[in-house]
Amino acid sequence: MLPLDRWLQEVMWPREARLTPEDVEVAMTAASAEMLTNGITTSVEMYFEAERIAAAVGATGARALVLATLIPMPGLPPVEEQLADAVRLNECAPDDGSVEYGIGPHAAYTVPLPVLREAARLTREHGMLLHLHVAETATEGDDLLAAHGLSVPSLLAAHDVLGGRVLAAHCVHMDDGDLDLWQEYDVAVAHCPASNAKLASGVIRLRDMLDRGLRVGLGTDGPASNDSLDLLADARLAAAMARLRERSATALTAAEALWLVTGAAADAIGRADLGVLEAGRRADLVHVDTRDLVFEPVGDPEDLLAHLVWSADGRHVRDVWVGGSRVVADGRATRVDADALRADVVTRAARLAAG
Fold this sequence. Notes:
This protein has helices at 4-16, 21-37, 50-60, 79-91, 113-126, 142-148, 152-158, 176-185, 193-198, 206-211, 231-246, 254-260, 263-268, 301-310, 338-354, and strands spanning 42-47, 63-70, 99-105, 129-134, 165-170, 188-191, 216-218, 285-288, 317-322, 325-329, 332-333. It is α/β, with parallel strands linked by helices and 355 residues long.
């Protein structure tokens, strides 16, 4: 495994340059099916080929916020065209909330500040979600700090990027001033503990964020930096890492960890129609089989919740409904052929690895 910067430059970006639109759709279909079978009904996707990603999600019956990638790279349209395409997609989004489009500039160290400012203006104007990476590693903001004398969060605030619906991924290396800015601008955080641990990026100040009232939802990050799209497993990791950081066995309770993947996650993406099973919200249900030995013993109802967070994972999910429609039955996706997808992904991955 390589550090993040080398992993992106030497492994990920060269392979991504060889991706076809069909590769993206097939891979996203497989990822969406995997997430559904792990009980994940809704995901945030920041990647190329936004319409292909939406088609994949439609095929599996899942729900997604699809962020049109915004980054100046050879082979991609000019950023002005990328922005215009994102707004066009938003205007054509379905009314049922199954797919919502936003804008996903990669990060302040890869996207020029004027472009970030324009992306933020457009998302505020159209009520779209703006999603970007912030403070994932300890050194990614060094050049910006040297040039501007400000941390990345302060730089984003100074250039009118914050405000509106902003979801910042990772946010590992943030001081008190940065967290104060996030609180002031109501910036939500996508906490990706498995990715941060695998890439040795660091441990987020989760308890401090929650105590400040920041909206934090749990994320897996991509399968290349996580390997398993399983939020139940990641909830356990988030709780363990928070306790290690604070050196306190009460730093994050099982109830809080479960909230991070349900109601808090819905709050983080600004979707008041999701996250809680109650009248007026969409009927997303996940049936977890508690007949496994990991759920024993149960002396009182709180034990069941503790077992769910500390012992269970996606393999215990049996059935899933998205908006009242059953999309997983007895552990298998109902709308796509998982075996055929697996074979297709293996063939395409081999081609990409071969160069």
